[in-house]
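Reminder to self: tokens first, then the designed residues, so the page reads top to bottom the way the pipeline ran.
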């Protein structure tokens, strides 16, 4: 299960990764986390891992990892927030659609569930798939926010049969990602 989680985390960073930066520490807030560049809300019941806890196999552009405390036999719902820098201007929608296109190639049984603009400068894509034939079918939601040439991506991975409360909380977390002006 840990291998699947790490593999999915790595997968979410494979498309259009540019130069990585930012050794900026994540600052805990009462109901979330904030850096000088992004903010995300987190409800009670989610474990929070900052760069201080990361091992060498976590990509350098990963800023934050959240994991549900409600354990599932098949897969534990988790969210990672990444920060990429790109050379050319790109919209949140265009970047999200490139992530969706890449995922459609990388996953077996790929199925797009939804895509839509959310908030002022965000775009959300949702899909399902699995890495190998024997793996469980998982659902993913990615919320992309662009500020200048910085791309912030909150990626949620969860078991579709997961607890409804976990899915609701995860969707709220994902939707709350914002870039700091």
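Designed residues (181 positions):
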């Amino acid at each position: 299960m840990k291998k699947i989680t790490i593999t999915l985390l790595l997968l979410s960073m494979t498309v259009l990764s540019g130069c990585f930066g930012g050794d900026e520490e994540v600052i805990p807030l009462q109901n979330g986390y904030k850096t000088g560049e992004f903010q995300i809300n987190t409800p009670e019941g989610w474990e929070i891992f900052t760069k201080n806890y990361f091992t060498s196999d976590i990509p350098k552009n990963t800023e934050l990892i959240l994991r549900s405390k409600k354990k599932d036999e098949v897969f534990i719902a988790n969210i990672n927030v990444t920060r990429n820098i790109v050379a050319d201007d790109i919209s949140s929608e265009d970047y999200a659609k490139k992530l969706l296109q890449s995922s459609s190639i990388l996953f077996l049984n790929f199925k797009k569930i939804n895509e839509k603009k959310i908030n002022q400068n965000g775009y959300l894509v949702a899909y399902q798939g699995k890495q190998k034939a024997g793996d469980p079918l998982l659902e993913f939601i990615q919320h992309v926010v662009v500020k200048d040439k910085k791309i912030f991506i909150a990626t949620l991975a969860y078991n579709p049969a997961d607890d409804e409360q976990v899915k609701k909380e995860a969707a709220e977390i994902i939707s709350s990602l914002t870039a700091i002006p």
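The CA atoms of residues 32 and 41 lie 4 Å apart.
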